[in-house]
Amino acid sequence: MTRHLVLLGGGHANLHVLESLADSPLPDVRVTLVSPYRLQIYSGMLAGWIAGHYPLAACAIALDRLAAAAHAEFLCIRACEIETASRCIRLADNWTIDYDLLSIDIGSDVSIDRLQYASDRVAPVRPLQRFAERYRQYTVNGKNEPIAIVGGGMAGIEIACALRVASGYRADVTLLAGRDGIVPTQNSTLKTRLKNALKARGVMIVDEDACGVDGMRVETSSGQHLAAALVVLATGPQAPSLLRGSGLPLDEAGYLTVDASLRSTGSTAVFAAGDCARFPDDGVVRSGVYAVRQGAILAHNLRAVLMGGSVQDFHPQRRALYLIATGSRHAVATWGPWSWEGEWVWWWKRHIDRRFVCRFRRY
Ligand SMILES: Cc1cc2nc3c(=O)[nH]c(=O)nc-3n(C[C@H](O)[C@H](O)[C@H](O)COP(=O)(O)OP(=O)(O)OC[C@H]3O[C@@H](n4cnc5c(N)ncnc54)[C@H](O)[C@@H]3O)c2cc1C
Q1: Is the shortest distance between the CB of 264 and ligand 1 below 6 Å?
Q2: Within a domain: residue 326?
Q3: Which residues pair with 218 in a beta bridge?
Q4: Of 322, 289, 147, whose CA–CA distance to 232 is shortest?
Q5: Does a structural domain hold residue 344?
Q6: What is d(CA 322, CA 183) in angstroms, rounded to the nearest whole number?
Q7: Is 110 in the pocket of ligand 1 (CB under 6 A)?
Q8: Which of 185, 192, 267, 295 has the most CB within a 10 Å radius?
Q9: Rg (CA), the chain
Q10: Nearest-atom index, ligand 1, CA of 287
Q11: Is 288 in the pocket of ligand 1 (CB under 6 A)?
Q12: What is the pLDDT of residue 142?
C-alpha cells in the first residue's frame, strides 16, 4: 500500500530529506512538499544580498526543482492547521491533505513581544521572502532615507552593517539593540568586535527597546522618537502560530517538543526539526547550524519508519561556528569562547554559504 509522506516547510532539515529522496527514492511512498514560497532564501546570505554582494537568485534554492528531483509533489501554499487526530493538514485554500508520516520544518516567526505597530514601513525579517519584497520597495521609494533595526542579535547586526554599505554610507542606520545592548549573552571579546564593526560602518547603536512604530517614527523605551522610513524587526524567534491547536505537545513557549530522534513526543507519525522543534537538550539553540545538522538524522529516521529499520538519535555538537557578515567584505567568526575577524573571515563565510546553496541547486 502506498503511504504518504508530507514535508511541511522547506527549511534546512527538510532540504536534506529532499536531497536524500532525490539520491535514493523510496518505493511505494508518495511525497508532498508544502511551502508558501517557491524560492527558499538562505538566511546566511540575506545580508550579502542587501550589501550587493550577491543577486537574490544566488541566495535562493528553488523548492519546485528540488521537489521534482525528489519525485515529490510541490504545493506552493501555506498550511493553516495541523489536525493530528485525523492526520491531515488544512491549507490556505481550504483544501486538506492527509498524511501517514509528517515532517515539520517550518522555522519560527519573528518575536513581536509588546511592540505596537500599524505601519507598512515595518519589515519583520521573517518570512525572508516577504522581507526581501519590503526592502525592495524601500529601495524604490525611499532610497537613503533613515532606517531603524530593532534587535541587537547577530541577524540585526548583519543587516544594519549591510544597509549602510547598500546606501553607500548615506542612509542613517540606527540599531535599537534593547536595554541589555548587543548580543547580551555573548562574551565581551565578541561584543567588542561587533560593536567596533558597527561603529566603523557608521551604525548608531541605541541600547533601548522599541515600544511602537507610528508612521515614520519609532518610539523608544525612554520616549525618544527616531525617524525611520523602514523599520526592520530582527527581534529573535517566536514559536510559529501554526503549531497552536495542532494537538501536538508544545513547550511553554509554544515550540513542538520532540525526543532525541526528532519524533514528536505526542505522535509517532510526526517528526520535527529546526527552529520549530524543542529538542530535549537545552544546548540546541535556534539557529541554522542545528537545523542543518538535524537534516541527516531526520532523513534517516523518516526512511527507517517507512521502510522498517531503527531510528537514530541526534547528538548535538557542543559548540557551533557562527560567521557574522559585518559589511563590505568583513566578517566576524565565533566558536565557543574564541572569535576572529577580517576579510579572510568574509571569504571563508562566502565559501561556506555558497557551498550550502549550491548543494541544493545542483538538481
Ligand atoms: C538575517 C538572518 C541571518 C541568519 N544567519 C544565520 C547564520 O549565519 N547562521 C545560523 O546558524 N543561523 C542564522 N540565522 C538563523 C536561521 O535562519 C534559522 O535558525 C534557520 O533558518 C532555521 O531553519 P529551519 O529549518 O528551522 O527553518 P527555515 O529555514 O526558517 O525554513 C522554514 C520553512 O517553512 C516554511 N513555512 C513557514 N510557515 C509555513 C506554513 N505555515 N506552511 C508551510 N510552510 C511554512 C517557510 O516558507 C520555509 O520554507 C539567521 C536568521 C536571520 C533572520
Answers
A1: no
A2: no
A3: 213, 226
A4: 147
A5: no
A6: 13
A7: no
A8: 295
A9: 21
A10: 19
A11: yes
A12: 66
